[in-house]
Design a protein that fits this description.
MetI-like_sf, sn-glycerol-3-phosphate transport system permease protein UgpA, MetI-like fold, MetI-like, UgpAE/MalFG_permease, single chain, mainly alpha
């Protein structure tokens, strides 16, 4: 029997929705509309004077080789972080789902990193892997590797990927663990009785049943890599060396806040918003087809 909520007043449902609608309009749609309008303006570094220049900011932006390099860097960085954070989280969740002694303690320790702010996570990793002060860089150099993320772009990217992955693994782990615990044990036991091995049970039964959770985490992780890793990049490399670890979101900050190009920075933020919306739409259009609800 279908149950419905009945309100004594016709205006009460709208009043309940009003706070969320206000937050969405003020903190999401209004800044987005301001960024779109500002991308058509040429402003001074202090925003005191402006001139409408149409698509000039976009033309200048696509004429910069550094912007295309930031696109490639963002693609490599996002693919690496998404793959590592999802695969490691799934591995940890599948192990934590077993009957383990002190299992609750292990789960709690795995969730804790999510409470760390991105900037703090970046500081922790740069302290560990600093070429001269880091406690991990010493053993790395002892193995014959001239580790220096301050000067070597490959080392800097590896450090960024590791720190961003560590920050996101706990979030993905939490959802994967909840998804695993929601799978009926009778289904897995029936497959075991039929003679399916652990790996076959995982790939043919468990993983397909986790497809809704996996799809949700793919979308969330892509958004995380594009936007929330700004604090990690700023703390670990600052976009260096020589701009080799500058992603699209960090270039928005570098050109707008540090370079004073407010119009160009707004144009970059609009393009970044379009890219994320397009990626999300593609995932819902094509990836969701393979999701088994």
């Amino acid at each position: 029997m279908e149950k419905r909520a009945l309100f004594s007043s016709k205006t009460l449902p709208y009043m309940l929705l009003l706070p969320q609608m206000a937050i969405t309009l003020i903190f999401f749609y209004w800044p987005a509309s301001q960024a779109i309008w500002q991308s058509f303006l040429l402003e001074d570094a202090f925003g005191l004077s402006s001139e409408f220049v149409g698509f000039e900011n976009y033309r200048a932006l696509f004429g910069q080789p550094e912007y295309y390099r930031a696109m490639v860097t963002t693609g490599v960085f996002s693919a690496a972080v998404a793959f590592l954070s999802l695969s490691l989280a799934l591995l940890l969740a599948s192990q934590a789902d077993k009957q383990l002694r002190f299992g609750q303690g292990y789960k709690t320790l795995l969730i804790w990193p999510y409470a760390v702010a991105p900037a703090i996570a970046g500081v922790l990793w740069i302290f560990m892997f600093h070429p001269t002060l880091g406690m991990v860089s010493g053993p790395i150099r002892a193995m014959g590797v001239n580790w220096n993320p301050m000067l070597n772009a490959n080392h800097a990217m590896i450090l960024l990927v590791l720190s961003a992955t560590w920050k996101q693994v706990s979030y993905n782990f939490l959802f994967f663990l909840a998804g695993l615990q929601a799978i009926p044990k009778s289904v897995i036991e029936a497959a075991a009785i039929d003679g399916s091995g652990p790996m076959r049970r995982f790939w043919t039964i468990i993983f397909p049943l986790l497809s809704p959770t996996t799809f949700f985490l793919i979308v969330v992780t892509i958004v995380y890599v594009f936007f929330e890793t700004f604090g990690i990049i700023d703390a670990v490399t600052g976009g260096g060396p020589a701009g080799q670890t500058t992603t699209l979101v960090y270039k928005v900050y570098a050109d707008g806040r540090l370079g004073g190009d407010l119009g160009g920075s707004a144009a970059q933020s609009v393009i970044l918003m379009v890219i994320v919306i397009a990626l999300t739409a593609i995932q819902f259009r094509y990836v969701e087809r393979k999701v088994q609800y």
